[in-house]
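Known limitations

Structure tokens in this collection are predictions and should be treated as such. Users comparing against experimental data should check residue numbering before alignment. To illustrate the layout, the record for Coenzyme A biosynthesis bifunctional protein CoaBC is reproduced below. The input appears on top and the generated tokens appear beneath it.
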Amino acid sequence: MAAKRIVVGVAGGIAAYKACSVIRQLSEAGHQVRVVPTESALQFVGAATFEALSGQPVRTGVFEDVPEVPHVRIGQQADLIVVAPATADLLARAVAGRADDLLTATLLTVRCPVLFAPAMHTEMWQHPATVANVATLRARGAVVLEPAAGRLTGADTGPGRLPEPDEITTFAELLLARGDALPHDLSGTRILVTAGGTREPLDPVRFIGNRSSGKQGYAVARVAAQRGAEVTLIAGNTAGLADPAGVEVVRIGSAAQLRDAVSKHAPEANVLVMAAAVADFRPASVSAAKIKKGSDSEPSSIDLIRNDDVLAATVRARTDGQLPNMHTIVGFAAETGDANGDVLFHARAKLQRKGCDLLVVNAVGEGRAFEVDSNDGWLLAADGTEVALEHGSKTLMASRIVDSIAALVGDR
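Generated tokens:
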């Protein structure tokens, strides 16, 4: 992505120290970053720190550098504004159109995407005034992230924690890549997402697995939650990925455990996104002790039995009327071409065989799809529509997938 001009606003909360990581990450990505803190923010992090990280001067008032008219110019020239943390006070002042410092004045002049990352105590986040302010900002086109749940100031815990810097910068890059705002259009929709690879045990040490990192499924869960959905994420082997903010995470290991978790949560879900790489086979027997080389127990071969097809079983359950709440099922297919046909040939056959509404298709190979941060592919629909998914970050691909899910939800 070409370098962009990004304004990072910092409001006065204890989470202001995390803005330093956001600034560094955006700067290291090649963007030109200008930090505009409030006076209260400087009580937590000094101006010198922000200047050192951004390489740009730091000002808080509208009467500094008057000939440059900064309260107008900064906003006019920005490609994106990120406010992290966004306190309850800052959100209220933004809604009211206040312009009593450089940050709020800048927010009034921008016409680019604006991303707010709230951070405050749970009671403040859930107060009707804050709820109304967040709704107003979203209605005006701003993106207001759902905060994480966790440790707050002191011994308090709950929703209101600033999302991790990686998550904030991920959405900042997404807004720049999309070129438009991220709509908050899935409120009231329950989405069940599976992600990561399953591990089928052979003995207490060894297992049969696959190369899935879980990054694509996590990206879908992350984007869907920030578009207002109530998201449950069933996570297999995900290489230590951080839990997405605002998402309930259920951890599993094997394909059988994933099947049971989907069966448990599917009845309440409106949408299922089967992004997990579920093992097709598992060992017919599992040794209670480690299998030793050269011992009598060393196998000459490993007998495999087929695992249940969770996606196909869920489609059948919906068809049989067992899942009355579920209206959209999305499958994933990691494919390669062969003598019988190319990737799309096999994908179209799989869509027909599985009976899902949408099928996300990835061509896999060295450095493609698995264990990387970018992706591309196709989105096939049951009605015959086929859309190419441009190469980009897995978060960008997730946002395009969620666009299609939202369109189907809107048609229900």
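For this record: The mean pLDDT is 92. The chain is about 35% helix and 25% strand. Please report discrepancies through the issue tracker.
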